[in-house]
Amino acid sequence: MRSPVTGIVTLLALLLVVIVGYMSLFTVQQTEQTIVLQFGRPVDVVTDPGLHFKAPWNSVINIDKRILDLENPSQEAIASDQKRLVVDAFARYRIKDALRFYQSIGSIQAANIQLTTLLNAALRRVLGEVTFINVVRDDREKLMQRIRDQLDREADGYGIQVVDVRIRRADLPEQNSQAVYQRMKTEREREAAEFRAQGGQKAQEIKSKADREATVIVAEANSQAEQTRGAGDAERNRLFAEAYSKDADFFAFYRSMTAYENGLRSNDTRFLLRPDSDFFRYFSNPSGKMATETPAKP
């Protein structure tokens, strides 16, 4: 028969084997790369995902091998034309050499701090060689490529590969923007005032021309009217003269009737004339002949 002591020893041995076996295994995820340390000194780098073995007394450090983000706070840079810029940029990087990364920096937090410093320096160097217009419009893509290349060369010593650098925004500082806006506003107001002045001058010229043409047209119309009226009056006088020459008595009668009609229109018309005046000759004699006075006898 086996003694109880033997069973306990066997159980402890099995437990020890399990613990050693557990300490000898480690897992590498697909998004990670692992450094195996022996008493703090790197002895191996594992990049293949899966289950791996190590000495029980060794430790492991997992380092992300995905593309990582570097968000850079807005920085001021001075272009070659001495214009100040507020630049908002970001970068994308990955750890290509885990061992060098661990030995030089050690952590992603420290890497972000170091890359931020390098990125700001690269931004100032590259943007300081070009003008403001090149940054915001003409050569922005080329400038981002140059910044990425410089940052990648400097980050290579840390086992880091810079994948991309992008400039979200490159603009003037707030006070400069306000000054530029005010200058643009003043310029547009000046142009608007100039356009209004030109429009007012053109309107005045058109109005003056229209008034002059209207005056000429009215004068010509009055002249033609006067000529027509004069021709009508002449024709009327000719007809009157012709009618008078044909029947002087009837013409005199017609003129007297017209005078009566014009003079006796009102109900309270009064004439202070002598009854034997020439105006009332048709009242006293239908023929219109005035009575001749009888000469006094001697």
Describe the protein.
Belongs to the band 7/mec-2 family. HflC subfamily. GO terms for molecular function: peptidase activity. One of its GO terms (biological process) is proteolysis. Residues 23-184 form the Band domain. This is Protein HflC. The structure is a single chain. By secondary structure, the chain is an alpha+beta fold. Among the domains are: 4-63, no CATH class; 66-172, 2-Layer Sandwich (Tetrahydropterin Synthase, Chain A); 175-211. The chain has helices at residues 4-23, 98-104, 108-127, 132-138, 140-155, 174-246, 248-263, 281-284; strands at 25-28, 32-38, 41-46, 50-53, 59-64, 68-71, 75-78, 84-95, 160-171. Strands 6, 7, 8 and 9 form a four-stranded antiparallel β-sheet that branches. It has a three-stranded antiparallel β-sheet with strand order 3-2-5, with helices on one face. Strands 1-4 form a two-stranded antiparallel sheet. Helix 3 crosses helix 5 (140-155) and helix 6 packs across helix 7 (248-263). The protein is rod-shaped and about 185 Å long. The chain starts with a helix and ends in a 14-residue tail after the last helix.
